[in-house]
Amino acid sequence: MVLEAVADPPVRRGSDYAQLSRRIAKAGLLERRPGWYATRIALTLGAFVAGWVAVVLVGDSWWQALLAAVMAVATTQVAFLGHDAGHRQMFRRRGPSEVVGLLAGNLAVGLSYGWWVDKHNRHHANPNHEDEDPDVGAGALVWTYEQALETRGFGRWLARRQAFLFFPLLLLEGLSLHVASIRAIVEREPGGKFRTPMRHRAVEALLLAVHTAGYLALLLLVMSPGKALVFAAVHQGLWGLYMGCAFAPNHKGMPMPTAEDDLDFLRKQVITSRNVRGGRVTDVALGALNYQIEHHLFPNMPRANLRRAQPIVRAYCAEQGIPYAETGLIESYRQALGHLHEVGRPLRG
Q1: DSSP 276-321
Q2: Residue 237 has what pLDDT?
Q3: DSSP conformational letter for 262
Q4: Is the pLDDT of residue 335 over 50?
């Protein structure tokens, strides 16, 4: 199996999606934005590097805890660049996209680009599908009554209280992503085949090793072991929290199709996704993932064009009688937490 970038949606002539796609293409919204991305990459990486320079200059001080919080924001913004590269929003060709993805993901963030692309492909193909979408598979959290009833021991205790523990658990998401990245590189099937398809496994392993060694060396050279531990805990914890808060509003609490549901591509993507209202600040803070419906319909659309595509998509959904979910940020969290709480209800009984 050869790993490609996050797959583009199928387009069938005459389908409802094909008609929408033609409107979007006519508006020029699928054209790449090299100038915009050059500026975004320069600003994001500039802030990221400046943050690490500040860490070195501040030295052995408890002010490093504050800088760790700043670096959590900068790290997430770099991760958003890796996300865009994986969707080929920056470049049409695979080569440049992979270079940006590997540098942003493996080297800068410590997150396997190949593992993420494989996982994200499956999510985009069947969002919120319990058996097909890895983002709603049973794990630390459960998303359906069936998953909840299958829990045992500590997992069941957690499922009962998962709505209340959701945000605290996100503090461990950064560590979880690092562990998953390493496992994806080394884990094999019983027959010896690697479990996760990856085009550049050796390069990914090398870049992750360089990231880890460089991260630990910088912290231990600049500050005492105690302060280094605090910095790492704050940085990784808040990075995981920020990542989780950026992705949680998108699908959690939305309908979860099953194998019995017969949905075309347009409806499958729209009814399982939720947009978050907001201005330019929200767009930057969430990496434009607040336009989740438009992003799922046109995953290779440049981030800067999603805002312009929204009125076209919303109007077309109204024409077709397709529910178009859009809410405020706080309300999106309330709906997601409400779903988690409801799923755990049978266990509390």
Answers
A1: E---HHHHHHTTTTT-HHHHHHSTTS-GGGHHHHHHHHHHHHHHHT
A2: 97
A3: -
A4: yes
